[in-house]
Amino acid sequence: MKTKKYVFLCVVACLLAVACGTTETVPLTGRKHRLRVTDQQVLSLSSQEYSNYMASAKKSANATNTAMVQRVGKKLATAVENYLRNNGYASEIGNFSWEFNLVQDNQVNAFCMPGGKIVVYEGLLPYTRDENGLAIVLGHEIAHAVAKHSAEQMSKQMNQQTGTSILGTVLNQTVGAGTGDLAAAVAGQYFSFRNLKYSRDNETEADYMGLIFAAMAGYDPQQAIPFWQRMSSGNNQNDFFSDHPSDEKRIVALQKAMPEALKYYQGATGTTTSAPAKKTKQGFRIGN
After folding, report:
1. CA-CA distance, 140 to 132, in Å (whole number)?
2. What is the pLDDT of residues 29-40, one digit of tens each?
3. Could you give phi then psi for residue 277, rounded to 5 degrees?
4. Which residue in the list 24, 81, 92, 141 is annotated as catalytic?
């Protein structure tokens, strides 16, 4: 009975740990998530990491490509801020201090830190090819910042660490020394698999939001399909152990979202007078 009592208390403590934080709503998708870290905490860490990275990175010597990255980035940032301002998220704008850099690196990659610090590697440009392709990438990276995916991941890790720590302590005290350590290790492995799937959901959400952001800025969202086809490795195996959706799933999801993205694109380019319908939480499904 004593063991059951402690296990029960363990479960209650874990639930209380998970319950801590603030519930926020992701723009565009309407998905709700609970964050245990504040904007100030995340932005402080991000700013330091970004400064460290840029101190060692070598900026591109190609003035034309650098100007393109900054031009497309600023256009997207303006569209995103206008959306936030007009849809009840005006208080979020202060979290962004946009910066777009092109660096000398042959990797086919780009990343965004919280606060709107975005870096594009030169190795990505042969795949983006033009401003439309670049807008798809930058829209995706900006979406990670707007959706606060970094804060979400940090919060999830904090919940896991709290839960496994409590679990290990209680089992060590009630069942036997070392038992809790083993249970915590198993739980840690379980969480690592969950995080892989969780990360894919974030990527899927960023794909969708980035597509809409590019369209809002006047870039043709239909160019997302050929871009991701160029990026495709041709390997569409099961993506269970990957933190990104498979190429096939990613393209299918984008095609499904295309009719809505085109409404925003038509509105941005003045080819229609109808305002795009707002997307509801039920209207966009994250994950499988």
Report:
1. 13
2. 999 999 988 899
3. -70, 145
4. 141
The predicted model scores a pTM of: 0.77
49 catalytically annotated: no
Dihedral over alpha carbons 59, 62, 64, 69 (to 10 degrees): -30
Fill in the amino acid letter for 97: S
> How far is Cα 257 from Cα 20, in angstroms, rounded to an integer?
34
Task: List CB contacts of 43: < 8 A, sequence separation 6 or more.
Answer: 95, 114, 115
Beta bridge partners of 32: 25
**Tokens for 126?**
């042969």
Check residue 33 and give its pLDDT: 92
Res 175: pLDDT: 44
Token match 């299918």: residue?
252
Locate 279 and state its tokens: 């997307």
Distance from C-alpha of 195 to C-alpha of 86, rounded to nearest angstrom: 33
Q: Which residues contact 270 (CB under 8 A, 6 or more apart)?
A: none
Say how far residue 233 (Cα) sits from the centre of its chain.
22
Which residue shows structure tokens 């490509």? 65
Coil/strand/helix, residue 44: helix
**CA atoms within 13 A of residue 136's CA, in its CB half-sphere:** 26
User: So where are the chain's domains?
Assistant: 2-283
Q: What is the pLDDT of residue 158?
A: 74
| Whole-number Cα distances in Å, 165 to 14, 90, 190, 239 | 9, 38, 14, 30
Question: Which of 58, 72, 42, 59 minimizes the C-alpha distance to 144?
Answer: 42
The list of the chain residues with pLDDT below 50 reads 1-18, 163-196, 198, 234-236, 240-241, 273-288
